[in-house]
Structure formats: C-alpha cells, structure tokens
Amino acid sequence: MTEAEAAAAAVEADADAAEPLVRRAVERGVATLTLDSPHNRNALSARLVRELYAGLAAAGDDPEVRTVVLTHTGGTFCAGADLTEASGAAAPDGADGPTGAAADLARLLRTVVAFPKPVVARVTGHVRAGGTGLVAACDIAVAGPGATFAFTEARIGVAPAVISMPLLPRLAPRAAGRYFLTGERFGAAEAARIGLVTEAVEAAEDVDRVLAPVLDGLRRGSPQGLAESKRLATAEVLRVFDRDTGSLAELSARLFASDEAREGVSAFLERRDPRWVHH
C-alpha cells in the first residue's frame, strides 16, 4: 500500500469519528484543499497531515484537475507543528518519536514540492513556524493584509531545521538570518519582499482578484507542460531535500528532546515566558 493509499484509508476510518480537518472541493480544474482545524489554529497534527495527503492524492489522480489551491478557515493559515503532540501529550500516529515526526514533516513538504501539479497557497491569516515551510513548499503564494509570518522556533529552544529546506532556496539570505534568529512577526508585504510569498495584496477582497489570472493561466496549461515546467522550477529545492533530509530531521529530533526545548514547549503551552527570557 502506498503512502497516499494509506492516508486515504486512515482518513476514511476517521470520517465516522469527526468532521474533516481538510475540506476538499473541485471546480473548473482547481482542487481546493481548505485547512479547517480551528481548535489548534490549523496546526500540523498527525490527523490533519493524513487528510492533507489524502486530498493531494485525490487531486493527483483526477485528470481534470490542473492545480491545487491550499487555503484555510479562520484567522490562521497554519500554526506549524502541533506542540501538544510534540510535547508527548498526544504522540503522533505512526511517528517514531521526535525523529519520526521531523521526517514526517519533511516528507509532507517534499510531497508538495514534488507534486506534479502546481500548488498555490491562498493566505489570509497568520503563519507560524512549520506553516511557513508549507507556504514555501507551494509553487505560488498570495497573501492578504491579514497575513502575518514568524519563525518562532528559537523562542521555544529549537530551530527551523526541516522547514529550512524549502525556505532557504527562496528567501533573501539576510532576511532569513534576521527572522530565523529574532522570531519577529512580519506582514505580507515584507514576506513578498524577501521571497516567502509571490505577491502581497493590500485589501482582503483583492486576494481572489489577484489569484484569478493565475488560476486561469494554470487551467490553460497541459498536464505534461505544467508538470515539466514545475520540475524545472523546483529542481534545486528537491536536491536540498535529497541531500539534507536525514541530517536535518536528526537535528530537529535532538533539539526537541533537549531540556531547553521541553522548557520552551511547556512555557508556550502554559502561556508563560521560558526561564531564559530577560526582561
């Protein structure tokens, strides 16, 4: 059984238990996958990731689909890793401890980068940590005025290790150095300036207006033309994944297992400053 088939089977098993965390719709050649997990700000829980795989698999198998739009409900696009799982409060299904969780995230991001159809991020809310890696893995990203971004890993004692693979080939080096280290929040215009998103718009109603010609252009592409053009554009990012996934997954696991990270995650979940903060 392939990973996509396993994900689809797991999602089907989940269906009777709860509402889906990733909603799917197809219209005029565009498959829209909507992250809909408001209870944890669309964090990358094991179940949400399974459903995202299943949505991608369905879009990949549909000959009428030319592109995938990844979007969200609520005020957060994706908050990154589900820290309740990372803390051990609820171990991720199928993950072999921290190393497995990091490898699973790397596998998801590589799947988006290598997906044979273009993936477009429609971002109108907050993006944090691992969520920025998901945006960077997409081929095109449009962000509205409500979008904010931050690499918050250093603030909880870890580093943007796995997500650096899609991020660093796209980001301006000086900007990556600053925002990886400081954890500062920045808006859509700055995200466009440094290469994290393709375009920023000033009014919320303009997001879909800007996306309209993009999606029209993608609808006009042939399956082969789109796949091979995407392959050219993502070749360097995929080389980084092939070279660095093992070492960066190990680094992520080692950091999450450290005393500092345990303190950082606990402080985050308890809504307090970790012990190293100086006021």
Overview of this protein structure:
With 279 residues, this protein is of the alpha/beta class. 50% of the residues lie in helices and 14% in strands. It contains eleven helices and ten strands. The protein has helices spanning 3-15, 46-61, 83-86, 97-114, 130-137, 164-167, 173-182, 188-194, 206-219, 223-256, 259-269; strands at 22-27, 30-35, 67-72, 76-78, 119-123, 126-128, 140-143, 148-150, 186-187, 199-200. Strands 1-2-3-5-7-10 form a six-stranded mixed β-sheet, with helices on both faces. Strands 4-6-8-9 form a four-stranded mixed β-sheet. The longest helix is centred in the last third of the chain and has 34 residues, at 223-256. It is globular and about 55 Å long. It starts with a helix and ends in a 10-residue tail after the last helix. Mean pLDDT is 92; it is low at 89-95.
Features:
alpha/beta, 6-stranded mixed β-sheet, 279 residues, 10 strands
